[in-house]
């Protein structure tokens, strides 16, 4: 459905809401009574443990949630929706942290957790590195304070460094990744005189209208074509259509081409898969590059997530491809909010000398805020430190080694779980069908591992995880899996397949929609 925005929106409108109560929720896969009891007890015991460990954190979260719809949303969408009511009532996860240090976060009750949230991907070099950049940003920016419009002196060096890293001529500054993507697409449309943008199935590019044409956006898809990643037919479309201004690529999709972000909320029958093929994806990007060049289509690499994580030179250097425009964000701000577009000089120009009224307008009050520019400068300087360069050189083999260690340990213990990864971005898949795999996120929290609200779909490591830290994370991960097994969540009926579970779910939906 991810490729068919209109159909996906229709299905989303049709899909009835229903909730599995305590009588149904633990045996919805046809498990025998003994297993149902086991699950029931495990569920409530876990709920009590989480509550007893973090009473202040949970109380603050409950108090704030009423006035913070974002929190209500993330709590509900941690798990497949039929289980949401039950989980929200009994398996509560706090939304507050009081401090961070090294690779850990401290909740309001003083409990320490390994940070696998990655701060939405911002945290590449380690939380303390960003604290240092932010302090430096405040220190360097203080003399100028909130002066906007004119630039902080460090801007000149920032522009120069970004030009070198991106291999492109010019730079513009924005306040978020979403805005950087908006500006890149706008420039592509302005210079090509064409309207449509191409994005790939499942790819996230921020929450702005045109790049998010399916459910989640009340507006119908407009000048957007959603095409298949790594597909000959896509190249054919690009070769033959005359209305395409740009192709937008989020290289994170290399981990799961044509699939949406792997949140646990979609683990309805337990199916999820990922696999990263560096050579295959590199070849694909290079072919895409070639077709875009032949057709005068602007190739935009959206590196807001993976830039400065896969390699010091970002995805362009990792996949050996040169884009026309590149968007950066997240980590580049050194801990502060920002977005950047780097591009070819001709594409970045916002006016036409021969038609002075035909301009491409883009502004933003807080673009290039002095504190942010200074922190960004500190981050870019940090990238040049020999020990940081060394981290980048090692990172590929290091994450591969650890992912293999995890998979070996999981398989030796006979747990139906494996991990796949794109560098330090990991995703968990499950080797058997189940309607309960999402429970693992709560057992991992119980073991002191903090995941973001998308659950086991995305674990984000920072480069300052030591081998000892990784051993501890592995031990805790295995303990979480053991608890899943003991709780009866991985009970498997002889007849249970993904197909059987999907049929069950469909029946539940029909019943919810039209009654028995
Ligand atoms: C690839 C990509 N592009 C754009 C964005 C939007 O960035 P922001 O959340 O800073 O607006 C994100 C955010 O996750 C992203 O991952």
What this model shows, in words?
This protein is 43% helix and 12% strand. The chain has helices at 5-14, 33-53, 55-65, 69-76, 84-90, 127-141, 155-166, 177-192, 232-240, 278-295, 314-318, 345-348, 370-383, 386-412, 439-446, 467-486, 498-514, and strands spanning 99-101, 104-106, 112-115, 170-174, 196-200, 224-227, 244-249, 298-302, 325-329, 339-343, 417-422, 425-430, 449-450, 459-460. A 7-stranded mixed beta sheet has the order 4-10-9-8-7-5-6, sandwiched between helices. A 4-stranded mixed beta sheet has the order 1-2-3-13. Strands 11-12-14 form a 3-stranded antiparallel beta sheet. Helix 7 packs across helix 13 and helix 15 (439-446) crosses helix 16 (467-486). It is globular. Bound molecules: pyridoxal-5'-phosphate. Pyridoxal-5'-phosphate binds at residues 120, 176-178, 181, 204-206, 250, 302, 304-305, 329. Pyridoxal-5'-phosphate (PLP) is lined by residues 120, 176-178, 181, 204-206, 250, 302, 304-305, 329.
Secondary structure: number of strands: 14
Mean pLDDT across all residues, rounded? 96
Measured by DSSP, the beta-strand proportion falls in: 5-15%
Radius of gyration: 24 Å
The N- to C-terminal Cα distance equals 27 Å
Low-confidence stretches: none
Tally of DSSP helical segments: 17
Task: Explain briefly what this protein structure is.
With 516 residues, the protein is α/β, with parallel strands linked by helices. The chain has 17 helices and 14 strands.
Give keywords.
alpha/beta; 516 residues; 17 helices; 4-stranded mixed beta sheet; binds pyridoxal-5'-phosphate; globular; 7-stranded mixed beta sheet
